[in-house]
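User: Predict the structure for this protein chain, please.
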Amino acid sequence: MGKTNKKLSTWQLALMTAAAIISLRGLPMMAQEELTMFFYILFATVLFLIPAALVGAELGSAFADKGGGVYTWVKEAFNRPLGFTAIFLQWIQNVVWYPTVLGFAGAGIAYMIGKPALAQNGVFVGLFAIAMYWFATWITLKGTSAVSKITSQGFLLGTVLPGIVIIVMAIIWIVGKNPIAFEHIPTNVPQVANIDIAHHVHPRFFPHMTGMSDIAFLAGILLLFAGVEVHAVHAPELNNPQKQFPAAMFLAALISFGLFTLGALAVAVVTPYDQINLQDGLFVTFRQLFDHYHIGWMTNIMGFLVAFGALA
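Assistant: Here is the predicted structure, written as structure tokens:
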């Protein structure tokens, strides 16, 4: 019948899983919470990311011989209709989520070509998202081997590398005694700022929750860490799923936690609160850093790499 499919390594599956979890688009969202981000990240890690990784590791290795994945797990526990419902819900939330990530990739391309205004142009972002959706579908039809190669390379070059760059540049920014943005929070945002008796403004560490809207925000934070179980369907493609799959899950969780925490803190260190936005806030930070050190051309390169990483 021809060649057998190439087996995945633990590292490849870990990178594919981390790529499904991490999008640098989430960094400005976390940075907007200033130092309260540590509470949200700890909340999401302890109550969602670690349990999800544990469940995914256990079920992924236990049902590796039956295909793995959410459909198999729910079907085996209950029945086929509920298994279908579970996998449908997982799919439909991606249909909603992908355009936002593709919009972020479009913003990266806009900065790459030196036209940052296009990042807010709905026609450009919409056409780019549709074209990339079809391109991703074409790549996926070539099989898991092609997908894993692009995903792994794209994640390393387009997510990990820009993430490390922004963290290192933020450290250089601090060492150079430049102003720390989260020390100068506006007084009209009590969610992240605390005003003492002497009318001094200090960043909060614990969020100021006043209603259900603040609680609902936690759901958005959890969504940033969602996806640790999404590649369980590839468990049978490992040489030793019982050992390799759990290792891949925990490696992916560790990478995700490190990049989210340090990357979001880097944005909060450099970018003033009123300049952080979700669409192109990361690129605003890159431009501010690189322009300050007279290497503005690096913003164009980072725009290309981040777009590649988002697409991967």
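The mean pLDDT is 77.
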